[in-house]
Amino acid sequence: MKKRLVIASTLMIALTLAACGNQSSSTKDTSSSVKTAKKVSSSSSTSATKQTDKFNNNEYGVMGYLMLSQTSASKLANTTRSTGDNEGMKITKNGNTYTFGVFPMGHSTNVIVNNDNVTVKYDENTDGSSMGDENGSRTYSKDELANKYANQKDDIDKVIVKFDLNKDSNTINNQQAAPTDLDEKTEAVLIYAKANGFDTLDVSDDNDASMELSTADNGRKTVGYGSDGDVQYQIDGNNVTYWTLDHSNDTPAYKQKMVEHTTTLSELKQEFYTAGNQRQTVDIISDNMEED
Questions:
Q1: Nearest to 242 by CA among 267, 256, 227, 223
Q2: Where does the pLDDT of residue 38 fall: very low under 50, low under 70, confident under 90, or very high at 90 and above?
Q3: I want to staple 108 with a disulfide (CB 3.0 to 4.6 A). Which of 101, 161, 245, 268 is the partner?
């Protein structure tokens, strides 16, 4: 009897130990699965974070406008930049708020970049579309914008450079004041020298041509000798925007597009109107300049 009791007890202990072993194995498997799931989740979260971190506020500001207007970054990058009140696009920045204005229509769109999303405020028609008289607002997540415009980053960065969005409006407003010793004709000669090279300013006795200053049909000033080297320009305070024909290929001049450039009067004066011989050349040409 005792022998049977001992055998039964032994079997009971063996079964108990086996059950505990299976439970421990099951617990380890479950724990391993949880850890794996957490690892995958963490990896996915990190990947999403990296996607949104690839872009800065300037880029998200441009993306917000692209999303609302349903246009491409390439098209915006090739849009004429408005200086003053001339026709074209004007983009300004104040902190994390970007204002997109279309002239002469007068409509504007404000894009506000927040921590996790971008809010776009615009003029809305009664049917909910843009460019109306009512105030409209839409909010896009940064994930949504990053996924949609990741392949347009290069063109978005071109927009940022073209419209000086790397500078805050306060910095731009505090730029060096325009020189006060340059008259209109002198400014025109300096701009021409910047566009075509100082060595194109010919004051030799063999040169009978006079540089001309006129106003184009689009309202821009034009300076030159009536050739494909003529330069159109506009001045806003110290800032100068000028346009030249694109001579980068063999396209005939009458088919070439205008290329936009920017500089400042301060830079022009420093580069072309500091040395005595430079000033003398510029003064001779400006004194003999013809105005239309």
A1: 223
A2: very low
A3: 101
Tokens 């060595």, residue located:
199
Name the DSSP letter for residue 96.
Answer: T
- What's the pLDDT at 247? 64
pLDDT value of residue 148: 95
The number of C-alpha atoms within 13 Å of 153 and in the hemisphere containing its C-beta is 10
Cβ pair 270, 190 in contact under 8 A: no
d(CA 272, CA 275): 8
Is residue 76 within 8 A of residue 66, CB to CB? The reply is yes
pTM as predicted: 0.44
Sheet containing 258-264, strands listed edge to edge, beginning at the edge strand earlier in sequence: 258-264, 239-245, 231-236, 221-224, 212-215, 290-291
The percentage of residues in the chain with a pLDDT greater than 70, rounded to a whole number, is 69
Domains of the chain by start residue, with CATH:
57-173 (3.30.1460), 184-291 (3.30.1460.60)
CB atoms within 10 A of CB 118: 25
